[in-house]
Structures are given as C-alpha cells and as structure tokens.
C-alpha cells in the first residue's frame, strides 16, 4: 500500500481539527518490535523508544531555540495526530541494493504554542522495522515567514551505560577524519563533539546507531553530552557562533535517525537513509556509470622509465589511460603532478589550489581535450581532481567546459565544514554537475546522508581516516582501524578509502614512504575491503606495475562497485565481518579481520538453488612473513554448504561465486 498527502492538505486537516487531550501518542514499527512513545509536558515535548519491550531511550526532550521569538518547547499543545502507513518499492540508480522495500508507519504531530505567538511546528515520526526517524517541519503560516535557529534542542537520553563507538572533535572545522574511540557512554568527556554515525551497544547485544538523513539547507549535527544526556549540536554559520540555520517557511530539518536491531548486520543492510530522501528528479540516468578509477596522487605520481618527462602532460596521463584500457578500469583521474594541480592557480600545493576568478584553465603543456579524446578512443572515462574553491564561484561556466572536453566526473576536495552554507554549496555542486552529466566524489567532507537517491551522480565521499595517511604517518593504518568502519562511518553510506595498496609488509617493517606507500594488512585484507566497504567509485590508487602480474589483481578487475543485494551473514563489532553482495546472479563475499587470527563459518544458505563455481582467495600459510602471499582455489558450492574460513591476523578472504 502507498499513501500520498500534500503539505497544504495536511495543514488544512490540522487547522480544522480539534485540540486533543495531551495523552500519550504511540507508534509501532510494522513488525511490532520498535515502539515510539510521545507526550507533552509543561516544559517540553518528550519521547521514548523501546525495542522488544526494553527501553533504549528514556524520556527525552524536544524543542528548538530561535533568535527572533525564543524557545519553541514550553507550553505547547498538540492538534490531532495524523497516522499513515506506507509499503512501497523503489529502485536505486546507485547503491548497495537495487530494489528497496520502503515500509514504515508514520505519525505527524502538529505542535502549537499556547502563547501569543502561536507558532506551529509539526513533528514527523517514521518507524521502520530497522529503526526510526523524526524531523521538524515548519508549515507556511501567518505572522511567521523567516527564522534564525540558534539551537536545535533534540535530546537522546540513552538508557543505562551503553558502549559507544565514535569520533570525537573539539571544533566544527575538520575533514571528519580520526581514530574511533570505544568506551562507555559515561566516560565520554562532556562538551566534546561526537561525530555521526555513532554506534551504541546495549547489554544483550542490542545495537543503535544515531545519524541524520536528508541533510539539505540545514546545518550538520553532532552529539554532545551534558548531564549524562546526549544533545544535538549544530555547526554554526561561518564567522560567528550564534546562528546555526537561516531559512524561510515552509522549511524542514533533516531526519534524526536511530537505526536499531539485535543483529548488527541489520544496521549495515539497512536502506533507511535513502528511504528518507526524495527520489531523483532527473529522468535520464543512462550517463551515470559507477566504476573504478585510478588515483595516482596516492602512489606518488609513479611513471615508468620512458623517453617522456613525467608531469602534467598528455604522456603521463596516457600511461595510466593505457593501463585502464588493458584492465577494464572505468576511469583515469587527472590530478596534477608533484603536488601541483592540473589547472592554473596561485597556490603552492593542492590544499591551496584555489582560483581567484573561479574559472578553470588548464596549465600550459596540458591539452585536456587531447587527453579526453584519447581516453574515449580507449573506452576510458576521465575523472579530474579540483579544489572546491576553484570551481564554485562559476559552477556553470566550469562544468560546461568540463562537459565540452568530455570529462565524466570529479573529486571535489578540501571542503572541511558542515555548516548550512557548505551543505548548500555541496547540493549546488551536485545539481549543476547533473545538468552537465558529471558525477561527484566529495573529499574533505562530512558523512553521506542518503542524498545519493536524490542525486545519483554522487558516487562516494571521504569523511574518514583512510589509507592516504600511510604516505606520512609513522605507523600504517591498522586492520583494527579498518574493521571498525563497517560498524560506524559505513552505516551512513559509501566512503572513499584510497584502496588498492599492493605492498603489504609486517607491521614491524612498516616505514613512511610518500612514494609507493606501504600497507600493514595482508593482500587478502585489501581485496576484502573492496567488498566490505561501500563505494560507487572504488579507487585503484597504486601504479600500473604494482598491479599487473600480481596475485589478486584479477579479482580487482572483476569486482563491481554497485550491487543488487547486500547481506551480512556474520559480524562481530570491532573483530570481524563477512558481507555478501550480489550483482546479477553472481555473488561476491568478503571477510575482513582485525589483528587477532580466528576461524569463522560462513553459511551459504542465501544462495539460489543450484551449483556455483567459487573462485576463492585466502591468505597463504606464510602470510605473517609475506603478507602479499595468497592462495587462489576453485571449487563448486551450493546453498547447503557452510564454509570454514581461517582469517590471519590483519587478514581477510574474498570469493566470487558464479552460477553454473
């Protein structure tokens, strides 16, 4: 079933309806496991959340603070709540699942002030089988047309003292990169900004992740602990600390999302975030082609010993384009060389590669049209890197030129903010890029919020500490860091992790190399990352000679970047995970391990009836000394089989199952 109601109709019903007694309003998930309860106190509206009869969120106040007319929270009453049920299917152009069932129960609770102002704000709540979400909606009304929000007073009063997995920051200006902390909620220092998604583990292995969806024309949200209770904390507009959001009515906030399950894999499988976003408005998706790309900045701009001078020129890019053409790699990234961008700028490195007048001009010696034409002849797309301040002042002019050259997409870098202004800049970039048939990869950027449903030309985002740091850190990024990603940052959506380093060494032998960086996890660990991590534009960051003729490269040439179905047969937070992803009739299964060796079992009961040919890659017995060694085996399997996998310390395992 499917219900459609327009905002004007809803407002009409509210205005015409009587004032109901302030009794408890309850809303259950379709399967009855999650219960949302709402009531109004004299001080503020409050809500509770229970899962299978156990309270996860105790009475938690809701409200908003405005610069013009003060707080919205005390002295409220509710008009008649409007309940609906939705059960529909929709397709994703890019995603971890092709077809999504969008099933939820919804209530719209109109809240009205009893004071002279009589402002109305609607609380909208949706409860799914794998979580719930709420947001505030500001309908058009008399005597209130604009607002300046100084704080959103949403609270999350978590029951007991759950273990939290989170990033902690002291300020709002950063690239959302850092080590994850695992500690009891009671030990989180008050006042620190907790980035989202944050994962909470309750006794009895009940999991809840808090994040946001449909972040549009609003400030990014963090969680801050005050008096033991988590509160929303919005990123302020630049240059001051008071104003967080400025908007005209009608308007609405992003969804405040709580993903909930007794099985951690259900949070990873969830499509709540895309379901809470609007469908794409564009009609032609034929040009949107997810895939894999080179990214030679990571390897140090390596080229072979040749007769040409490496640099920002046709020959250097031709070397990588030819590699892509030989190996079915979809895109080559034109970045620059030696720290200088491919376009004219006055900066001294990539971080300062801005353009004063906002017009992109290629550097002397680079013919972008020649590069694009050659790549097209070879069946390879061109992907460029840009500093956001180089393109933003004149988006249309720059993107029209990109389209004329034949560029397919770009990485937009060094955004490092999530205030309302930057949130809107990103959406402007996505909308303008879509008009010119360009895909976008955001770097130095905040988490995804499901907007790839609305703008399927958004392929991936960074927003996490990743293998780029192996170029300059004293210690290489560890498998223990990798394994926390699926349970935290990846709950929000795809991430670019600078994948593809093919020079693994024992941890004791790691050293910093800006050119040809080293890795700590095993070769199979790296292969598994391509299945376990979600990204619609996976990178092969190493140089051609690092791949060709190497064990495991054949798997990287085959593995897709978007999927028809995603399942999590087994996982244990912070220890290991197995993810199975289907493309057509083929399955790809990746298992990722932390630093402790272990044996796990993977049942194949999710397969369709019949036999499959399994191409299996496992770490070799001598992997502790030679972490690039792996064993490839071919065997026949079916849905009755249970595979026993031995995972090395820092290791992994991948397989491709082809229907016979």
TrEMBL record:
According to the entry, every stretch annotated as the Glycosyl-hydrolase 97 C-terminal oligomerisation domain falls at: 562-657
Q: A Gene Ontology molecular-function term? A: hydrolase activity, acting on glycosyl bonds
Q: Which cofactor does it need?
A: Ca(2+)
Record's Pfam families?
Answer: GH97_C, GH97_N, Glyco_hydro_97
Q: Where is the Glycosyl-hydrolase 97 catalytic domain?
A: 297-463
Q: Which UniProt keywords apply?
A: Calcium, Glycosidase, Hydrolase
Which EC numbers characterise this protein's activity in its record?
3.2.1.-
Which EC class is this protein assigned? hydrolase
Per the record, the domain of life is Bacteria
Q: Which residues form the Glycosyl-hydrolase 97 N-terminal domain?
A: 27-279
Q: Which PANTHER family match?
A: GLUCAN 1,4-ALPHA-GLUCOSIDASE SUSB-RELATED, RETAINING ALPHA-GALACTOSIDASE
**Subunit composition?**
Monomer.
* Protein name, entry field: Glycoside hydrolase family 97 protein
């Amino acid at each position: 079933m499917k219900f459609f109601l327009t905002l004007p109709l809803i407002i009409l019903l509210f205005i015409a309806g009587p004032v109901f007694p302030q009794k408890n309003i309850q809303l259950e998930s379709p399967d009855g496991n999650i219960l949302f309860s709402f009531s109004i106190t004299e001080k503020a509206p409050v809500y509770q959340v229970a899962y299978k009869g156990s309270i996860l969120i105790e009475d938690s106040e809701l409200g908003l603070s405005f610069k013009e007319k003060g707080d919205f929270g005390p002295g409220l009453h509710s008009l008649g709540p409007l309940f609906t049920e939705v059960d529909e299917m929709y397709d994703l152009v890019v995603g971890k699942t092709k077809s999504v069932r969008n099933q939820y129960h919804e209530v719209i609770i109109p809240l009205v002030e009893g004071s002279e102002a009589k402002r109305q704000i609607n609380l909208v709540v949706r409860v799914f089988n794998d979580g719930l979400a709420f947001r505030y909606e500001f309908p058009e009304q008399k005597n209130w047309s604009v607002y300046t929000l100084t704080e959103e007073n949403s609270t999350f009063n978590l029951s007991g003292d759950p273990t939290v997995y989170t990033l902690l920051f002291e300020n709002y200006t950063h690239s959302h990169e850092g080590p994850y902390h695992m500690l009891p909620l009671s030990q989180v220092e008050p006042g620190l900004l907790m980035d989202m998604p944050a994962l909470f583990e309750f006794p009895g292995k009940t999991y809840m992740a808090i994040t946001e969806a449909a972040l549009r024309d609003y400030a990014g949200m963090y969680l801050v602990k005050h008096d033991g209770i988590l509160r929303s904390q919005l990123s302020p507009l630049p240059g001051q600390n008071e104003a967080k959001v400025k908007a005209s009515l009608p308007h609405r906030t992003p969804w405040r999302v709580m993903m909930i399950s007794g099985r951690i894999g259900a949070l990873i499988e969830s499509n709540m975030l895309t379901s809470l976003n609007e469908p794409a408005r564009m009609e032609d998706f034929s040009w949107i082609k997810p895939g894999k790309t080179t990214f030679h900045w990571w390897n140090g701009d390596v080229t072979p010993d040749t007769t040409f001078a490496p640099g920002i020129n046709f020959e250097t890019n031709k070397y990588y384009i030819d590699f892509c053409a030989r190996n079915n790699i979809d895109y080559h990234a034109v970045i620059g060389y030696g720290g200088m961008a491919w376009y004219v700028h006055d900066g001294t490195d990539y971080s300062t590669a801005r353009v004063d007048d906002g017009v992109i001009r290629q550097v002397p010696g680079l013919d972008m049209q020649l590069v694009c034409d050659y790549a097209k002849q070879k069946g390879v797309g061109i992907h460029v890197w840009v500093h956001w301040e180089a393109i933003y002042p004149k988006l249309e002019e720059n993107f029209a030129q990109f389209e004329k050259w034949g560029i397919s997409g770009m990485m937009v870098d060094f955004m490092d903010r999530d205030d309302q202004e930057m949130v809107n800049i990103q959406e402007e970039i996505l909308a303008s890029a879509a008009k010119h048939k360009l895909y976008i990869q955001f770097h130095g950027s905040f988490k995804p919020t499901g907007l790839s449903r609305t703008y399927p030309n958004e392929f991936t985002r960074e927003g996490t500490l990743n293998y780029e740091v192996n170029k300059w850190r004293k210690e290489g990024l560890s498998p223990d860091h990798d394994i926390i990603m699926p349970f935290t940052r990846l709950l929000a959506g795809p991430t670019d992790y600078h994948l593809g380093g093919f020079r693994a060494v024992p941890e004791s032998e790691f050293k910093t190399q800006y050119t040809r960086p080293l890795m700590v996890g095993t070769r199979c660990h790296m292969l598994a990352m391509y299945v376990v991590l979600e990204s619609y534009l996976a990178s092969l960051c190493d140089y051609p000679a690092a791949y060709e003729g190497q064990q495991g490269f054949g798997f990287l040439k085959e593995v897709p970047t978007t999927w028809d179905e995603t399942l999590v047969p087994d996982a244990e937070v912070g220890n290991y995970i197995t993810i199975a992803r289907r493309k057509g009739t083929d399955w790809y299964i990746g298992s990722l391990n932390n630093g402790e060796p272990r044996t796990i079992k993977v049942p194949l009961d999710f397969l369709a009836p019949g036999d499959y040919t399994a191409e299996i890659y496992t770490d070799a017995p001598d992997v502790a000394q030679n972490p690039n060694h792996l064993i490839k085996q071919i065997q026949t399997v079916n849905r009755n089989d249970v595979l026993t996998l031995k995972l090395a310390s820092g290791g992994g395992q991948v397989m491709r199952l082809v229907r016979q």
